[in-house]
Amino acid sequence: MKGQLKDTTRDGTDGTDGADGVREGRQRAKSDFRFDDARLCFAFVGTLADRGTAAPFERLAGPEDLSRWAVESGCTTVVPPCTGADLDRARHLREAIHRTGRALADAAPPAPEDLALVNRAAAEPPSTPELAPDATTVRWHGDGITAVLSMVARDLIALCASEHRAHVRLCGNPDCEVPFVDTSRASARRWCSMKTCGALAKKRAYRARQQTPDR
Question: Helix, strand or coil for residue 131?
């Protein structure tokens, strides 16, 4: 499944300069979900972009966006129906995961109310995999969006129960603030993704050098 224990998936830019990548032959839109170099739980946190700015960008603007994320994340192959109540519940879970990820990055105890919310979501039955006869594709079966949110919550729990909890960092882009797991050999990773915030930082540094007059 995408985004579980290792960093995979798509690219994009979460910074205030806007999206400048290309996906599937078109210009990337700000509303496109980002999965680069992210665990499932932290990819879900990334559905709120530009957290460090005065105007965060909500990628889960409506229930249909939550349904789309469920499929694009790889948690299900069937678009689950979602209601406004499902969306509210998903956003509350997302923010609890974000605060917990920040606490891990600060080596601080997560808030009990956030852990309780995560545990309630994880207590729901998750989707279950079914291997196709050709043994090359997997279909997921479960109880709609509740099962998907359970998988997201369980991924955070698995992270907290692993040695990787000590390697959670916050993205060095102050506009982003999305947690990530630093699995680099030197433990020197600074960005949630080099294809997004890392590329944006390089672009900004280049522009700054171009604007600096030679002495």
Answer: strand
